[in-house]
């Protein structure tokens, strides 16, 4: 183990709630996401530059003590460094060089005998520890380890009046609060900014609408109260900010102001009762999930509940509920007994020896052209009939590594070239941090012709990363990214089978009359002329595979067709999914002697679990599989 340092939960660490709850399944876009449940524990004081892409924000939290002066939080002391009284600081500012490298006055806020005090100290020197994303500083008159230990957990402050001057176009979030908001086109007053939320990608303004503004909810009813809505702080929507007049103008897209307006007319008492029921349901899920983890000897995951703030405990609870313990138990078995995975190349080698096989060869040139002569009229006609009658559903899988600069263009190309959009159910599988991007892409392009009632987004299946060594109970321990976050990685394309079994998705598709499901990656290279579903139906097969000459078994480039009947059987046998346990090096935190410790490994220290959709071929009868081979 290399590079360990102590990490104590700070006495005042502000953590905003996530923009989206980490649910595995998101309903169709007809149910707009509501931001009104977000509660900011403290107002962020950060400079913001309006950008056409996103707003950049620092994290300096306004703190008001018993003194008249206002302070700005710039970080907290996480541990002692060395034997000369130095301490390690976790920064909470975009100006670390200014705050920690330049000597001068600073203030410490800490708890002494149950009371919160703020005391002035003198910073002597500081240097960056970039490998740990922290700073090491020396405070005057702190010469011994024992003295430094008393400062661990303290919050470091500077005076509000010492805020750096910002460049033109940059704003402190605190200065935006209270500003009037007007429509640019008409000058009509919209409301007042009451809060700012740092979303990581772009900031959000929480605006309290004027009661005189005519806001229609999605039921077509006028809202008499003054609701709160969220407005993205980007140049396209907020083109002008006037600091002198204390006002800004906005050009909201159609429907933005109505997005988060409550659409029901239930009384406050009824809403509270529903909220109470939802909390009770969630508590039961947490209890059940904790019981499962206890049975797996993973109680250390719960340590974070004893530290931090309420919002951090809520985040940990969400993480625990999100663990697929059944799938994790299956994956853990592969560490001691590696699964006998059958890769696509091995399957094809055995398949080609069979006499009862269905192989259909097409050329790359034909596949991407409008020329349909490469296939029989029976297959083509059958494909058209199935798709036009809504018998085929599409699942597009986007992995995080695939969705880079060209990812949006590839996804748009796939969506545009799909046939009979209006009758085809569509499921997008993606990382949780891409779900907002997908939603905006769909709504901005009128769902590319798909029926909004038949469009869903599923978060990709993930599993916790576990230690490569055995813990105290002889088990591989789940690793923690922070005291309140489980370290997790995507399972891969094989996780689609687990997702379909977790959300009753197949039942919904069956009710729509779907008979076949196409599952493919957004990286699938040759688009157009997709007659594989027609081939599967004509051959009365359960599975269809498209392969590319000489390139087999590539997880991020696959195209398969499953019959609903066979896929239903697979989802009932999730415990038979095959995994690879891959050795990796992963930073994490551990509780050591009642202190949180950062662990930076020098060698492989953990297992990540991967599963390929091709493992579904294991045990599949050859006469129920057909192959479309793309050749040069």
Question: What features would you highlight for this structure?
Answer:
632 residues, alpha+beta, six-stranded antiparallel β-barrel, 37 strands, globular, disordered N terminus, PRC_barrel-like_sf, ribosome binding, UDP-N-acetylglucosamine diphosphorylase activity
Tell me roughly what share of residues is in helical segments. Answer: 10-25%
The overall pLDDT, averaged over residues, is: 77
What overall form do the CA principal axes indicate? globular
DSSP strand tally: 37
* Tally of DSSP helical segments: 15
Record the strand order, biggest sheet. Answer: 2-23-22-21-30-32-31-37-20
The whole-angstrom Rg is 28 Å
Distance between the termini: 51 Å
Report the structural category. alpha+beta
- Major sheet summary line: 9 strands, mixed
Flag low-confidence runs: 1-46, 51-66, 215-224, 367-374
Strand content range:
25-35%
């Amino acid at each position: 183990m290399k590079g360990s340092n102590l990490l104590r939960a700070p006495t005042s660490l502000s953590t905003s709630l996530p923009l989206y709850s980490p649910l595995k399944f998101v309903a169709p876009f007809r149910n707009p996401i509501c931001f009104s449940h977000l509660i900011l524990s403290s107002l962020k004081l950060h400079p913001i530059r309006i950008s056409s892409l996103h707003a950049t924000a620092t994290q300096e939290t306004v703190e008001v003590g018993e003194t008249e002066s206002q302070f700005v939080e710039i970080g907290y002391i996480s541990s002692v460094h060395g034997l000369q009284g130095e301490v390690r600081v976790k920064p909470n500012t975009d100006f670390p060089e200014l705050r920690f490298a330049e000597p001068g006055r600073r203030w410490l806020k800490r708890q002494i005998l149950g009371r919160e005090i703020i005391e002035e100290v003198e910073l002597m020197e500081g240097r960056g520890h970039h490998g740990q994303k922290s700073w090491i500083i020396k405070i005057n008159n702190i010469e011994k380890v024992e003295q430094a230990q008393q400062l661990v957990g303290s919050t470091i402050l500077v005076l509000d009046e010492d805020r750096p001057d910002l460049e033109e176009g940059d704003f402190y979030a605190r200065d935006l609060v209270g500003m009037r908001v007007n429509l640019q086109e008409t000058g009509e007053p919209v409301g007042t900014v009451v809060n700012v939320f740092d979303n990581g990608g772009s900031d959000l303004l929480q605006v309290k609408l004027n009661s005189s503004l005519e806001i229609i909810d999605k039921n077509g009813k006028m809202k008499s109260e003054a609701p709160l809505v969220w407005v993205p702080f980007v140049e396209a929507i907020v083109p002008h900010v006037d600091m002198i007049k204390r006002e800004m103008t906005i050009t909201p897209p159609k429907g933005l102001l109505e997005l988060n307006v409550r659409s029901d007319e239930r009384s406050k008492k009824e809403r509270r009762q529903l909220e109470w029921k939802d909390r009770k349901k969630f508590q039961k899920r947490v209890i059940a999930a904790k019981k499962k983890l206890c049975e797996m000897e993973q109680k250390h995951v719960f340590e974070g509940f004893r530290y931090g703030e309420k919002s951090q405990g809520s985040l940990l609870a969400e993480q625990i509920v999100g663990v697929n313990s059944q799938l994790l138990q299956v994956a853990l078995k592969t560490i001691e007994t590696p699964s006998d995975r059958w890769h696509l190349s091995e399957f094809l080698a055995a398949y080609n020896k069979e006499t009862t096989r269905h192989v259909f060869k097409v050329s790359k040139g034909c596949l991407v052209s409008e020329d349909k002569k490469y296939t029989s009229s029976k297959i083509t006609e059958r494909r058209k009939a199935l798709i036009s009658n809504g018998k085929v559903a599409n699942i597009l899988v986007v992995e995080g590594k695939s969705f880079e600069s060209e990812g949006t263009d590839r996804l748009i190309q796939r969506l545009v070239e799909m046939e009979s959009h209006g009758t085809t159910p569509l499921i997008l599988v993606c990382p949780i941090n891409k779900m907002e991007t997908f939603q905006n892409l769909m709504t901005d392009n009128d769902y590319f012709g798909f029926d909004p009632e038949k469009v869903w987004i599923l978060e990709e299946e993930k599993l916790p990363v576990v230690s490569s060594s055995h813990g105290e109970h002889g088990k591989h321990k789940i690793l923690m990214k922070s005291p309140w976050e489980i370290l997790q990685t995507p399972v891969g394309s094989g996780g689609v089978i687990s997702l379909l079994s977790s959300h009753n998705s197949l039942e919904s598709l069956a009710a729509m009359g779907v008979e076949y499901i196409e599952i493919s990656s957004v990286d699938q290279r040759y688009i157009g002329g997709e007659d594989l579903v027609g081939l599967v139906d004509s051959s009365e097969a359960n599975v269809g595979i498209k392969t590319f000459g000489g390139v087999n078994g590539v997880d991020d480039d696959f195209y398969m067709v499953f019959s609903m009947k066979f896929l239903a059987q697979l989802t009932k046998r999730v415990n038979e999914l095959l995994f690879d346990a891959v050795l990796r090096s992963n930073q994490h935190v551990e509780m050591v002697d009642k202190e949180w410790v950062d662990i930076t490994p020098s060698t492989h220290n953990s297992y990540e679990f991967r599963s390929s959709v091709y493992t579904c071929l294991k045990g599949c009868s050859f006469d129920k599989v057909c192959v479309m081979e793309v050749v040069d």
